[in-house]
Amino acid sequence: MSPEKKLLTRRTFLKTAGAAAAGAAAAACAAPAPAPAPTAAPEPKVEPTPVPAEPAVKGGPLEVGVFQEEGPWFDVTKELGDQFEKDFPGTKIKYTFANTASDSARSLRWEAGDPLDLDTGRWNNQAATTWDWVDNGFVLDLTPYLEEPLPSGEKWMDTYAPITRSFAVDQRPDSATKGKWFGVPQTIVLMLMHYNQRAFDDMGVEPAKTWEEFQTLCATINEKGADIGMKPICVSGPTFYYTCHWWDRMVQRYVGREGVEKVLFGDGYVRDDPGFLKAAKEIEKLVTNDWLMEGYEGSDFTAAQALFFQGKAAMIHMGTWLVSEMADVIPDDFVVGTFDFPTVADGKGNQESMFGTSHIFSIPNPEKSTSHEVNVPLAVEFLKRFTGREHTAERARRVGNISPNTNVESPPKLPGVGKLVDAAAGGELILYYYGVHWDTALTDAWMVPTQALFLKKIGAEEMLEQIDANLDQYRATAG
Q1: Looking at residue 447, what is its pLDDT?
Q2: Whole-prediction pTM value?
């Protein structure tokens, strides 16, 4: 980390969204040495009296970021926290909402010296929008703790699946902190097509591998589902985050990762590559062919997702957090199938690429916290439990999260997802949204026009024009 503080620029702030002291060293007082004998015999060696060490972990206040503040995911997390408070007397956990809607507010807190003790979104190796938090010394280097053995004898870092390291470990080519861990994974997420397995069986249809097959699939469901009020695709809201991932995936297929990132994080424009227009026109077909769920225009994302589980749509493209987020409304007999986003025949991108992440939880650098003293040992112990095999296996069973650990079974609510996780580990796994969701202004520039397309307010060409105009404004104001 840089030894001196670097002020965050406006561009840095828009990208929001030293290990702690180890404990007092043992001191000892040696007894006075006896006077030398006349024969000059060697002096007897007096061992220092050991001083009792301070307890390794002391209880105290701990503010923990949570993805949900109620429901099954929070319940299982709170159960862990309640036991943690008992095991470390004096501990009191405060749970703070730490999801997309609070990213900007939490970033302000970190910069003001009032960070959460455990927070997500401060670091992701694939997200350039988070790198400044590490480069400016806001995030604690957890590497020394992860190298230590657990009671099982294995190193803490070795309990995590290799797929998570592309997100948790600094792998930037020119980084001064390359190879360091600035957080640990809490779950694995894949962006996938989720579908109603029973509806597919009843209609005699199969998941699509290519975009051509997908269009045929949508047309078939649109026809066969008419009598039961089922449309092919559920769109969440359409909240622009959830319209944009259709765009993100399609431009990766047509343009390729490098070409997309040149526009997002470089000086390129979507008008520079005809692949962007091809992608936009294909996405537009979802709207013009009437393949979207009835009433999606007026539903918020929670209501829309609930309607998917009530049989109003056969498919939804979403992160694998879907089943945990909606656990309260999923019927007991509902079987969720999954398949990856379809490939395109004439695309320049890697057609085997998948999108996802591993949500990384970090601890703040105590030197940057002015509001309170960060209890690093206590925070580390909580992370060991929160991201360890026992708890993540419980979340997999109860709410459908995919564990980031080795030797933990896939969630029973997502049958078959294990094969897709294996495929992602063996190929290219791209951070979903390319990490722009941690940069508020870039989010608006890139994502919002996709919402207008899904709401039938603009067409494909106008969407591209708006994105380029937004990028000009973003670059001018961000510096």
Answers
A1: 98
A2: 0.84
